[in-house]
Amino acid sequence: MVTMGCGSANKRVMKRKSFKWILMVSMLCFVHMVVAQLEVESFRKGGMTDHEVIQEALNELAEQGRGKLSFDGSRTYRIARSLELPRKSQAGHFVLEGNGALLRADVDTIHIFNRIPRNQREALNEMMSTRFVIQDFVFQGGAKAINLGATFGSAILRCHFRNHREAAVDIQFGLQTRIEHCLSTNCFKDNFVLRHGEDWGGNQNNSQSNHSVIESCRVFARKDGETSFKVLASGGVVLSNIISEGHGQVQYAVYADRLNSTTVRYFKIENFHLEHAPLKAGIYVRMSGNSEINGIYYQIARDEVPLILAGRQSGLMHVSNIPHFVKGSVMQQEQFGGGAVWVLTHCHRAFYQSSNWRVRNLEGELVNELPYYFSGQEGGHGIRRWHGR
Predict the structure, then answer these.
(1) Which residue has better confidence, 382 or 120?
(2) pTM higher than 0.85, yes or no?
(3) Does residue 229 contact residue 239 with C-beta atoms inside 8 Å?
(4) Distance between alpha carbon 147 and the CA centroid of its chain, in Å?
(5) Which residues are CB-neighbours of 287 under 8 A, at least 6 positions away?
(6) What is the pLDDT of residue 265?
(7) Which of 106, 116, 121, 220 is the most buried (most CB within 10 A)?
(8) Residue ranges of the domains in the chain?
């Protein structure tokens, strides 16, 4: 009986110790969670400007090495100098939660959120392992809203960009970046840009924004702007369910150029809504490898300005599912004597007629003819043309 009593007492003691241990671990986890979740307004002190408050909070976030920073969604934050995001992390992940807050630049030359490497070594060795989730902000003014370099797997979600001088979002060496459900309105030059890290010395093969996605985003273009969506020296990029509309006095809706990169092999546009007629081309593509354009809805054309323009040294151009043809539309190829290989499927029959094509000849003139390498099938209307036959 005594032995059994001792055993019961030992069990009670062990249960109390286990409970205390569980309680202590739970409290530590709770404290850690609270520490990791920062509020911008908790850093506000008398006399501090908005950008000073935010930068103080960002510095603390950087010191933590991970976590989430939340903004007061009811406020308009006035930003007088670029806000520097954390350059590196411990766990690889920062979340910036706007809650609908407006960040308004008071100076045209600043980048509201800025994070650019000093050189390629820093980009590769210290910064690439970090990613950001930037969500639910409204940005207004400044040179750029988001100027983000050297990240892997970052996401920009549900943001609205307005009146930026250079670009709404400029991603440089941002592998697997996702920009989704964002709106850009009235930007002076570019809107959404994916490119390589030339600003700090990266080249077109070692600092690309490969395998990135822009999805369900809309651009309302400003007069005299350049592009709605721009992709430079980056492969595996997909533009999906995008809209370009607004003023027609812009250069291009989509501009995709491999530049001198030798590693770009794939580019895709799907379900593109083009609601204006840019000055130089609706879509400009100069990519090696394969380019897919699957699904275009448009109802405005500018006479003799190409809907799709293939630049020199383009690869395979697979164009499909353009069910409607607007009078005045043309397709154009810049390179003579070969050039891109075109495959058209399930498009309106007018796209298979030479009168709606422009190909630049040896004299540099544009002539009405189908490209040298061309194959197409549209219902019962089919064309086969390879090597000029």
Answers:
(1) 120
(2) yes
(3) yes
(4) 11
(5) 235, 256, 257, 258, 264, 266, 267, 314, 315
(6) 94
(7) 116
(8) 36-278, 301-389
pLDDT at res. 31: 38
pLDDT at 339: 84
pLDDT of res. 29? 43
CA 50, CA 59: separation in Å to the nearest integer?
14
Query: 293 pLDDT exceeds 70?
Result: yes
C-alpha 96/C-alpha 134 separation (Å) is 5
Q: How far apart are CA 71 and CA 75, in angstroms?
A: 8
The structure tokens listed for 323 are 């069910």
- Written as one string, the DSSP assignment of 360-372 is E-TTS-EES---S
**Residues with Cβ within 8 Å of residue 352, at least 6 apart in sequence:** 344, 370, 376, 378, 381, 383
Would you state the structure tokens that stand for residue 85, as one six-digit string? 């995001």
- Residue 145 has a pLDDT of 99
Among the four given CATH numbers 3.40.190.120, 1.20.810.10, 2.160.20.10, 2.30.130.40, the one describing domain 36-278: 2.160.20.10
Separation between Cα atoms, residue 370 and residue 142, nearest integer Å: 45
